[in-house]
Design goal:
17 strands, alpha/beta, binds pyridoxal-5'-phosphate, 4-stranded antiparallel β-sheet
Length: 412
């Protein structure tokens, strides 16, 4: 008898974006003529930049000739990309990494989900609340999170990030945490963690032999020069942190698929006997068994964003989205809404008026203004009373959505 992995049955079935789609569809059935604008889902809208397109065409042509054809590449990624990453993403920030500490992947979601399988099942994990759902769900799948009660997993330390604490997570005091997930800039709140606060986490990890899994998918959106782009800007992080990065939000690669994970050689985990095992050794072994590399064309595309033209073009698109974000902040705040994020990230995290529950506000906005947001509670219990707006829309759609929100807010 083939038995099911029962941990999968513990997963909360309702996937946030499926729930949203269901509610939007119900609205559309009742209002077939209404044109709904979505500032909900976190996908980009602007096309790939010319430098990337050119590199992809060139790589495709190479595939067409036996002299330049590429089959299986290295599971860890091609050196041309690993070296470009070290040189462009880290050296300018004073971080020295070896190219063989970089593992190219098909996007950060896979690796943030997969990495937990290197760790013993009864490690105790800590996450900020609210947070990107992949971290918890991938741990649920292996049976690490306990049971789900009142919107929370019994074996997860939730570190609330709310307006009340300035969106700075506090390290749990009552229980030792083995593995800490941090996402900075944060999805969904769009808020960031400063060096001093990040240093507290690194120091905790060093002192208590914990592991930090740091998701920097949105680092390209950071504008404040004081905010670290990488956890390796903090001394000691090389010994206790793994970092995930993605070209999805940086360069519009959500459909191309490429990112990378940094596993420094100094990060290790313990056996019960106290032996230290380097995580890089385990991750390399895991990747060689379960992963056959990111496509050559995607890796050439990623390499192209490090050319002078590529850098300028990618930056122009980021500026475009951040201009959306600043228009959204200005308008929403002028209407009296309390907004966070949007300054170093393409997300606006808005408190609903009068503590309206997230889902209720979501429906009011959908029916009143025909605009879709994402209910904050979908990212964790502390997200209730907030909604997320993305700045990834086109300028026209963003402006139109803001006009509708303005008229709706003023009319009731
Ligand atoms: C979008 C996103 C990613 C990246 O996903 P990809 O698989 O690289 O497309 C990773 N982490 C967070 C928090 C994200 O929002």
């Amino acid at each position: 008898m083939a038995l099911v992995n029962i941990h999968f049955l513990n997963l909360q079935n309702n996937y946030l974006f499926a729930d949203i789609a269901k509610k939007v569809n119900a609205f559309k059935v009742m209002h077939p003529k209404a044109d709904v604008i979505s500032l909900g889902i976190g996908d980009v809208t602007q096309p790939l930049c010319p430098a990337v397109i050119e590199a992809m065409h060139k790589a495709t042509d190479e595939m067409a000739s036996s002299a330049t054809f590429r089959g299986y590449g290295p599971e860890q990624g091609y050196d041309f990309l690993r070296e470009a990453i070290v040189k462009n993403d880290f050296l300018p920030r004073g971080i020295r990494l070896d190219a063989d500490e970089i593992y190219i992947n098909d996007g950060a979601k896979s690796d943030t989900g997969n990495f937990q399988e290197l760790l013993h099942w009864d490690n105790f994990i800590g996450v900020t609340d609210p947070i990107y759902p992949v971290y918890i769900d991938s741990n649920v799948m292996i049976g690490r999170c306990g049971t789900y009660r009142n919107g929370k997993w019994t074996n997860v330390a939730y570190m609330p990030i709310t307006a009340e604490n300035g969106f700075v997570p506090e390290i749990p005091k009552n229980r030792h945490v083995d593995v800490i997930y941090l996402c900075c800039p944060n999805n969904p709140t769009g808020t960031v963690i400063g060096k001093q606060d990040l240093r507290k986490f690194v120091n905790y990890a060093l002192k208590h032999d914990a592991l930090i899994l740091f998701d920097a998918a949105y680092q390209a959106y950071i504008r404040d020069p004081e905010i670290p782009h990488s956890i390796y800007e903090i001394r000691g992080a090389r010994k206790c942190a793994v970092e995930f990065r993605s070209y999805s939000k940086t360069a519009g690669f959500t459909g191309v698929r490429c990112g990378y994970t940094i596993v420094p050689k100094d990060v290790s985990v313990a056996t019960f006997e106290g032996e230290r095992i380097p995580l890089s050794q385990l991750w390399n072994r895991r990747q060689c068994t379960k992963f056959n590399g990111t496509s050559y064309i995607s890796q050439r595309a990623a390499e192209a964003i490090y050319s002078p033209e590529g850098k300028a073009q990618v930056q122009a698109t980021i500026d475009y989205y951040m201009d959306n974000a600043s228009r959204m902040l200005t308008t929403l705040r002028s209407l009296g809404y309390e907004c966070y994020g949007g300054e170093n990230a393409p997300y606006i995290w808005m408190r609903t008026p009068h503590n309206t529950p997230s889902w209720q506000f979501f429906e009011e906005l959908l029916y009143g203004a025909h605009v879709v947001c994402t209910p904050g509670v979908g990212f964790g219990p502390s997200g209730d009373g907030y909604v997320r707006f993305t700045a990834f829309g086109s300028r026209e759609q963003t402006e139109e959505a803001l006009n509708r929100i303005t008229n709706w807010t003023k009319s009731h």
